[in-house]
Amino acid sequence: MRNKKATSEASSILTIPGLQSAGWPAFLGIAVILIGILAFPVAFDVRFYFVQVGILIMFYATLGTAWGIVGGYAGQHSIGQAAFVGIGAYTSTLLYMKLDISPWIGLIAGMLLSALIAAVIGYPLFRYGLKGDYFALGTVALGLIIFEITTSFSTITGGSQGIPLKYEENPLNFQFPNRTVYYYIIFIIWILTVFISYKLRRSRAGFEMLAVRDDEIAAARGGISVLKAKLTAFILAAVISAAAGTFFAQFILFLDPSTVMSLGISVQIILVAVLGGMNSYLGGTLGAIILIPVSQLLASTFTERPGTDIALYGVILIVLMLFMPNGILGLFRNSPKWRKIVGW
Amino acid sequence: MAQDCGLVTMASSILSIQNVKKSFGGLDVLKGINLEIEEGKITGIIGPNGAGKSTLFDIISGYQKANEGKIIFEGKDVSKLMPHLLARQGVIRTFQLTRIFRNLTVAENLLVFASNSKNQKGNSNERAIELLEFVHLSGLVNDEASTLSYGQSKLLEFAQVLMHSPKILLLDEPFAGINPGLIDQMMQHLRKLQSEGLTIVLIEHNLPMVAKLCDSIAVVTNGVIEMHGAPDVIVNDSRVKEVFLGGH
Ligand SMILES: Nc1ncnc2c1ncn2[C@@H]1O[C@H](COP(=O)(O)OP(=O)(O)OP(=O)(O)O)[C@@H](O)[C@H]1O
Ligand SMILES: [Mg+2]
Predict the structure, then answer these.
(1) What is the ipTM of this complex?
(2) How many other CB atoms are there within 10 angstroms of residue A322's CB atom?
């Protein structure tokens, strides 16, 4: 049965070649890398600081990969993506703090609320906006508005002072005595996101996003609903970002607007995706692996001049856009073999 | 206003263009187009540059909205439908300036068109292989479409629209830039599709070619259908000769 399916897939030119066609070395490589990542916090007696950097890398890898779905696959450059991280973080945190609802349920609630907000904002922007620029501007506005709302409704949200999360050590509360557990939770979120992105690229829905990115008019001529493709991408990216947001709030146990939804975070997310290669399901991950350690270093170097790191990101982003618009993995796209692996 | 030069019967029209008007700013491009497209026939549309032929295609396929008038497809008013919905109904077009997905591979370009049609028939994979064979692109299946030549892009677009199993195919100058041998094959292919029931409308400047392929020809000038009739009648009309064979 399995075999039959495999051969019929191989002989179909209407299937996008995936990892399986890259053969066992690819799978071996993936297995080694995954085992390495899983073993890292326990196998070597690493300082928790490095585990924490690992958590940050996977957190941004998740956000960068999610951004790749809307910005890379669908070609819609969402600039205020951190708004959804904030929505996720605040939804679960407020439900937990005010109503004692488990952050696990809050996680789902945040994802749903993000989906709703993405749909409500995305629909008019995609439906009536003339071109992608309107969408980009709209998402900047969204980011600022959500930031302002959170800051000004301080009686509920704690405003710019933030809210410390109450600590009640209990897995049901998304809180664990052993902080290494967070490493594995974000690992799961990250690997799921990469898997979704990989599968999406090979599915009809993802495929429609790519067609829309390339040429909206031609996509419509092929029977594709341009609105639906863009909206699906935007909502999917928002939902994943919200999940990451809930995770982050639980991890640091403190929440204020600038920690989860500053423009700097939005820029960082885009930078991660663009550097790695936003059209590849691995782009966000590669970007995060390179950029997060660098940014940690920058932030600690320029502690007395806050904002320097963000300004520097801006410069890196512009240089990238100009000279390597397809990111690092984009360099592999012209090799058919590598294209299968990086999933261009 | 249109002169009926025999042959055209109203009996089985699949597409009916009724009093379609379109202006851009102060420029009245279409001033009341009336045209019946007969089911299962190949209809040619000719007319000088800038006559509004492509604009008429844009209106039929939903990319532009007419200022006035109606488009009736299979008895239903489709004037307000979005392009992708018209495509799903089986109204499929090519563009004068070829549109393919440049960052996707040749195979992926076909995949877009392999479904999303209410009119799907047969195995789409076999169909794709056949079509690629036909347009000589089989060897380039996994190449990025941006690497194709102009003519190859055009052929890919031709294969794409056939992937979709349209009910009515609107071709905007399909032969421009294609080598003559292949044009003959494309014409044969279109005839074959016609024999399977497909309705085809094509815009073409090469008069002998239109005359050879089409069952009827409509002439667009000054924003209206000046004439619509059998190829031999149209080709021999003095006014058509004047416009097309440089009689002025
Ligand atoms: N979107 C638009 N905005 C303004 N003017 C337009 C637009 N589209 C077409 N036109 C004008 O409408 C007229 C008809 O254009 P159209 O492309 O339909 O002509 P055509 O008959 O297809 O010509 P050709 O044989 O050269 O392809 C031209 O004068 C063109 O400049
Ligand atoms: Mg034209």
Answers:
(1) 0.86
(2) 8
